Write the structure tokens for this entry.
Amino acid sequence: MSVTVIKVETGAQRREFVNFPLRLYRDSPYFVPPLYSDEMKIFTDKNAYSDTCESAFFLARREGRTVGRIQGIIQRQSNELHGERRLRFSRFDSINDEEAARALFDALEAWGLEKGLDTVCGPLGYSDLEREGLLIEGFDKLSTFEEQYNYEYYAKLIEKCGYQKEIDWLEFRLRAPKEKNIMLARVAERALELSKLHVVDSDALSKKEYIARYKDGFFECLDLCYGKLYGTVPFTESMKEQLVEQFMLVINKKYLIIICDENERVVSFALCIPGIGEALQKSGGRLTPSALLKLLRAVKKPRTVDLALVAVLPEYQSAGINAVMLQKMTEYLESGEIDYFETNLNLETNTQVMAQWKYFDSEQHKRRRAYVKKIDK
Amino acid sequence: MLDELKAILSKVNKDIDMDSVTEETRLIDDLGLDSLSIMLFAMEIEAAFGFRFTEPVKFVTVGDVCEFLEKRN
């Protein structure tokens, strides 16, 4: 029996859209679910991107069973910024079935053409801070909370639908350097002194106070540093609020380093998230009491930490400020407090960022890909 | 001066081919120094020449460093 594709409209279909990957990856030791409540929010006005994006969601079904899903996102901010007419595909999941994948992409592309768009790219989320990139290397490695795991066959399914590589991201696992780097601490101290900067003392503030005080500076710095990178968009106020809310639960202020100038302007930060993947796996992303307990324990005393976002304002990028973050990371690794850091996604063109990993015992263990296809003939 | 700076550069990065370093050599584009290495280079210059920079260094070439140090002297 052939595949039919439906556009998701009802509550039951929305729940099925969110539940399908949880079933598909039920037995995978590497898949880390997103928070269930965050996923259900994407269908509502509570989604902070609902005022700048338009979405459509599709399910593929055969003999009454869901065999795949896909989301299309029209990121209007990004399209206006770059003068493009692009449709992003996101949340693509499928059984290993070409017909199912083709049916989903056909439906998505038809919707895109209806909307006057000429190109489809993905997998990309609403913004750079969402899960993005198709895993193409590293299928035997545990995902981080910030990224989406997929089976190895996905690349072939997508490529058979006419999609080609647009850009890759590389990911690294960082362990304590084999040889102690005695210069790092001295360089960090001197770099701060010379540029008249300081590391904010997070011990002096509660997590809520710390975030409230520096979040505007954090987002300003983020916009300035990430603005030109592939897939990024500037932050609206509602996006900032949503992100702070989403991350509040999983932030341990010990791993959020903020560097300010004499006027308390944020010039650099490193936002690292405690490794909570294992804590979330069994619950399917639902914060049941026992899942919440595991999560909070992992946040308080993680064995691994994920680099979520790191930024240094352009005017300070040659000033050695990154030594501060690298030195802190090295301290945590050498003390044995942390087993390793996960860098998450580094654009393959971002050689400046990747050059820093030479200060660690680093292993490039994953690769992700964004695909692209012209759809107007 | 150039020879002194080459000796300092070799402390910062042993892999640099010093025979190829001239005053026109660019620290980042030719020698591949990252911001940490540039900071380290600045600290080694401070130690070698007995002074402290008062603001972040913005040298592009080895020649820029020579010129700065010669003016200082």
